[in-house]
Design brief:
alpha/beta; four-stranded antiparallel β-sheet; 7 helices; about 20% helix; globular
Length: about 325
């Protein structure tokens, strides 16, 4: 199809496999909060293109996420415009020589940033959603809020890894939730965890639960960029007040890999402004984890005092342990 001749910038999705991590060595990486005005998940950046047969490489090599996917290996399951998003659901063949093989991808904005990903045969994604799944062991018991729920990638991983705790997710666009239920197994997830998963349609910045959240995951993008409210310290002060004692916020702050519809919303600069706004509220209790080939490709932020790293590792599945040592104090 003609649409496969153009490149989808699956800009928000960073594949970062850590299965072979050790505590002493990290491999070289390959690679919302519903704007509540518009939700979108940034899955680390790199420009993933869908190639026509004429543009495929002839030499044999092992593809990375930066390589294109041949058009014959991609199927468009849905494509339509909702009130808030340009929604596309892609299915990548399991035969594809690519890290996305066997996955379904949710693209929302014009540039084609990935907002959700799921694999048929595994729950971990080797993307920043897996970093989100490291939060439960370092927060007090209680509900976790997901601001920018998308199709439920973060919720699925957390629910399957941890037997306790509830998730309350906010998504601005009801069409995104409908797509999640039809193509990403969200309906089954709701049936499997009726007492632990709660989804709300509306402005994520108005999210609240009685007695506060134990943790908040923030993944709020609109039109391919972090929403402007996240560059305002007042937003972070408001979210801080939504936490229980000892609670934390973990945030996908994007980076240079994220391509906005408005070229003036440079991903790296927006990330920096967001971190500066967070720093004004959380001061020295702010840490940053960088993913990607370059420092500013894609980053996450974590609030609160640095946890006991060894205790944190012991509480995590082996496949997630490698992320713990990647957190560094934020420096402006």
């Amino acid at each position: 199809m003609a649409i496969l001749q153009t490149s989808y910038q699956i800009r928000p999705l960073l594949l970062y496999s850590i299965q072979n991590f050790s505590t002493s060595h990290l491999p070289t990486p390959p690679h919302q909060l519903v704007s509540l005005r518009k939700s979108s998940k940034s899955i680390r950046s790199h420009r993933l293109t869908i190639q026509s047969q004429q543009t495929q490489k002839s030499e044999l090599h092992t593809n990375t996420q930066d390589d294109g996917i041949p058009a014959d290996d991609v199927k468009i399951l849905a494509r339509f415009k909702s009130r808030h998003n340009y929604i596309r659901v892609l299915e990548v063949s399991r035969r594809a020589d690519h890290p996305f093989a066997g996955s379904r991808l949710l693209l929302l904005d014009g540039p084609g940033n990935i907002h959700s990903i799921s694999f048929l045969l595994k729950s971990l994604t080797n993307t920043y959603f897996d970093v989100f799944a490291t939060l439960p062991p370092i927060i007090p018991p209680g509900p976790i809020g997901i601001l920018g729920f998308g199709a439920g990638s973060a919720a699925r991983t957390i629910l399957k890894l941890y037997p306790k705790g509830s998730i309350h997710g906010w998504e601005l666009d009801p069409s995104v939730i409908s797509v999640g239920r039809e193509y990403f197994g969200l309906s089954k997830l709701e049936k499997d965890y009726p007492d632990r998963l709660f989804i709300y349609i509306g402005d994520a910045l108005r999210a609240s639960v009685r007695e506060g959240f134990s943790g908040i995951l923030v993944d709020l993008f609109s039109k391919g960029s972090l929403i402007p409210e996240l560059q305002d310290p007042n937003t972070w002060e408001m979210l801080r007040k939504c936490l229980r004692k000892g609670g934390r916020v973990m945030v996908n702050v994007g980076g240079s890999c994220v391509e906005a519809e408005d070229r003036r919303r440079d991903g790296k600069l927006v990330m920096e402004d967001t971190l500066k706004a967070m720093h004004r509220v959380f001061r020295d209790k702010l840490f940053v984890l960088s993913l990607g080939n370059r420092k500013d490709d894609s980053s996450l932020a974590l609030t609160g005092a640095l946890p006991d790293l060894e205790a944190w590792k012991k509480a995590l599945p082996r496949s997630l342990v490698g992320y713990v040592d990647m957190w560094m104090p934020f420096s402006s």
